[in-house]
Design brief:
The chain is of the alpha/beta class. Helix content is about 45%, strand content about 20%. The chain has helices at about 50-70, 85-105, 115-125, 130-140, 150-170, 175-185; strands at about 10-20, 25-30, 35-45, 75-80, 110-115. The longest helix is centred in the middle third of the chain and has 20 residues, at about 85-105.
């Protein structure tokens, strides 16, 4: 099992995951001196696997691989979107549970965020489109926007966690950029 010792330079790595049964999106950022740096974003395509249990196994394996390779200190997951199709919700919940299990297996703290909370943290609007989120991430981190936006969704979860992690430890929660700025005037330069 990996060591959970913090480096002396207070570097934090956050893994963001957008669990899905067709595509799992993920992104990694590094925080050093309260500045965000892009590390990686990609996706795991699962539609080539016919069996749902095999897809869940692949999610678990990829999440463990990411943890063992990049040694994130914290993990942020996008919570399933509540739709009308119960079977889809069940499958998404399983995908999220498997990704969580991998993080827990490696003793990483995990935080879930609703899709609206992630969009709000990244764009300032909880009703932003996937494209708007991707464009804001491009502006913030200098990424190239991929064809499929599942990877940017995973990266957005990590960015959302960066903006909310201190608030969570202090029992606060931010509803968007305005709330963050008002509560963190000393961090704005």
């Amino acid at each position: 099992m990996q060591s959970k010792e913090k480096s002396t330079n207070n570097e934090i790595i956050i893994l963001g995951v957008d669990p899905g049964t067709t595509i799992m999106g993920f992104g990694l950022i590094k925080i050093q001196k309260n500045k965000m740096e892009f590390l990686l974003m990609d996706e795991l395509k699962l539609n080539k696997y016919d069996s749902h249990p095999l897809r869940l196994k692949k999610i678990f394996e990829r999440t463990l691989y990411l943890i063992d390779t990049y040694h994130p200190d914290e993990m942020a997951l996008e919570a399933p979107f509540f739709g009308k199709n119960v079977q889809s919700m069940l499958k998404l919940g399983r995908a999220q549970g498997v990704a969580m299990a991998a993080g827990l297996y490696r003793e990483i703290s995990i935080t879930e965020y609703l899709p609206k909370k992630i969009k709000m943290a990244v764009t300032g609007s909880g009703n932003a489109s996937k494209e708007q989120v991707a464009k804001m991430l491009r502006s913030m981190l200098g990424i190239t926007i991929p064809k499929n936006l599942d990877s940017t969704d995973g990266l957005a979860a990590a960015v959302c966690h960066f903006y909310n992690r201190n608030a969570i430890s202090q029992g606060k929660s931010y509803s968007g950029w305005d709330a963050f700025v008002k509560q963190n005037k000393n961090r704005i330069k």
